[in-house]
């Protein structure tokens, strides 16, 4: 649950702020992105994300809780049928706030708050990356001739040289292979 904010309210009183944030949330779900002041966007984020979490549950009680905040049934239907399935794999962070500069009239800092609807890409864990490397290590320990051992050292040299891209790594390996062949000729 978000921490209650202290200090002045957005619309004057608490009831007006509640209605203002509910209307902003409805506009966000309808248009997927809205431009507002930074303060309103920051105050909207916890409410919007909590309502999306209810929509991900998808049961009748969750729908009624969202309807108690947003009175428009069409917007709630859109939230439950279109937005919730798109963020089903996401564990949070359903909104993104981007600062866009100041408003021309009163120089108020403006921001765009938008729904993050891109699919989640899971990062490979360190253990999962180490398992294939460990499986490849026993095969590399059985050199057939002196040449594969030299290739292993050249790969290590390329890694130690700090190759930052695959192309640089390939170039470093080629240079190391040339050096090994020159040593073999001499």
From TrEMBL:
One GO cellular component, as annotated: cytosolic large ribosomal subunit
Example GO molecular function: structural constituent of ribosome
InterPro entries given in the database record: Ribosomal_bL17, Ribosomal_bL17_CS, Ribosomal_bL17_sf
UniProt feature, compositional bias: Low complexity: 129-142, 160-174
Gene Ontology terms: biological process: translation
SUPFAM superfamilies: Prokaryotic ribosomal protein L17
Biased composition (Acidic residues): 143-159, 175-186
Keywords: Ribonucleoprotein, Ribosomal protein
Keyword Cytoplasm: no
Region (Disordered): 129-186
Gene3D superfamilies: Ribosomal protein L17 (3.90.1030.10)
Pfam families according to UniProt: Ribosomal_L17
Subunit comment: Part of the 50S ribosomal subunit. Contacts protein L32.
HAMAP family the record matches: Ribosomal_bL17 (MF_01368)
Family: Belongs to the bacterial ribosomal protein bL17 family.
Protein name: Large ribosomal subunit protein bL17
Source species of the chain: Microbacterium testaceum
């Amino acid at each position: 649950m978000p921490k209650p904010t202290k200090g002045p309210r957005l619309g004057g009183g608490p009831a007006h702020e509640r209605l203002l944030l509910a209307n902003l949330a409805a506009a966000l779900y309808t248009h997927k992105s809205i431009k507002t002041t930074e303060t309103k966007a920051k105050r909207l984020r916890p409410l919007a994300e909590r309502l999306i979490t209810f929509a991900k549950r998808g049961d009748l009680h969750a729908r009624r809780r969202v309807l108690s905040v947003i009175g428009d049934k069409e917007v709630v239907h859109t939230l439950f049928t279109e937005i919730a399935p798109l963020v089903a794999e996401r564990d949070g962070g359903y909104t993104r706030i981007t600062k866009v500069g100041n408003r021309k009239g009163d120089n108020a800092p403006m921001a765009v708050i938008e729904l993050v609807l891109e699919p989640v890409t899971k990062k490979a864990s360190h253990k999962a990356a180490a398992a294939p490397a460990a499986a490849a290590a026993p095969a590399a320990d059985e050199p057939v001739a002196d040449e594969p051992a030299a290739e292993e050292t050249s790969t290590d040299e390329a890694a130690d040289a700090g190759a930052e891209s695959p192309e640089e790594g390939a170039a470093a390996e080629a240079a190391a292979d040339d050096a090994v062949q020159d040593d073999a000729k001499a």
